[in-house]
Amino acid sequence: MSQSTVPARGAARTSGTVRIVGAGLLGASIGHALTALGVDVVLSDTSPAQLRLAVDYGAGRPARGDDEPRLVVVAVPPDVVAQVIEQELADHPDAVVTDVASVKLEPLHALRARGVDLTHYIGSHPLAGRERGGAISARADIFIGRPWVVCRDAETSSADLAVVEGLALDLGATPLEMDPEEHDHSVALVSHVPQLVASLLAGRFVTAPEGSLRLAGPGVRDTTRIAASAPELWVQILGSNAEPVVEILDVLATDLAAVADALRHPDAPGARRTVADSIRRGNEGVERLPGKHGQNRRFAQIVVMVDDTPGQLGRLFGELGDLDVNVEDLRLEHSPGAQFGLAEISVVPSVVHGAVDGLTARGWKIASMPND
Predict the structure, then answer these.
(1) All domains of the chain, ordered by start, with CATH?
(2) pLDDT 10s digits, 296-350
(3) Which contiguous run of DSSP H or E holds residue 263?
(4) How far apart are CA 61 and CA 105, in angstroms?
(5) Is the whole-model pTM more than 0.85?
């Protein structure tokens, strides 16, 4: 899928001109998606090079002084988001202004402290992104199927709310209403602390022996994938949401200390139970995570060996389609020097045996399946 292509979903709910302030990953991605739907998108960025790059890639056109936007989307770093929101509300008093910052309470407090009229401001946050930022990494499809939190208040008009929720729906996201405090506590748990945990674990690899790292499989890669994120951005995000992050880190530190103490004396009474209970509680937590389309259900995994030759993965998907098997998720592992890769395919449990039998009959080697 190209940067400016999104699946067709009918006529756009978003109308008029949309002004996007900040042409980085999220801003340019929104621009690509709206432009593909025929919406007039104007871009602004303090970096002329970033702006030109986003325009060259097709995320929108440069802003002009006579633009009259119906919607303004602020997509700037957390440390300047309140300042930019204030300026956009003053410059475009008839527009609805939203932002996509990952912290909602701190900028809201700053705006209220400055006495800014927030009648046409609605904070929002798409739970979407990539490990790499900038206009060059922008994609129109990163919002599809993702939650998009909308923080309305008692002053928010239904017409303004419809504009922001319409934006989310146009981009394929699912709007969810939360108050700013609930949002910030939620993202601390599911986004901000996981970033720190992944970064701290991956930091142990810096001095690890090369031979140890060659043993890395999908588990450690999944656990540390987001450790590739930009430090400069995360310093701002974590600083803006420090209190709920610290609360969770303190509890996590207590849990880690309990497991470490148990493993120091694994034969002591209750030590094995402490470890087992920790793993079991993790099982229960994972089972609560939403599956595809937000449903709390688990999928079964089939691991297929795929030869390291062109076209094999495409052939696998084609034959799964012939078997009427819908792939809910896919993970790939390819160890250095290996002549094959492992494709871990998530499917609904009811189709596992039919998929395995059908693939085996077509010559595929199954590395593992449920209950192996």
Answers:
(1) 17-178 (3.40.50.720), 186-264 (1.10.3660.10), 299-368 (3.30.70.260)
(2) 456 888 999 998 888 998 999 999 999 999 998 888 877 666 678 888 898 888 8
(3) helix 242-264
(4) 32
(5) no
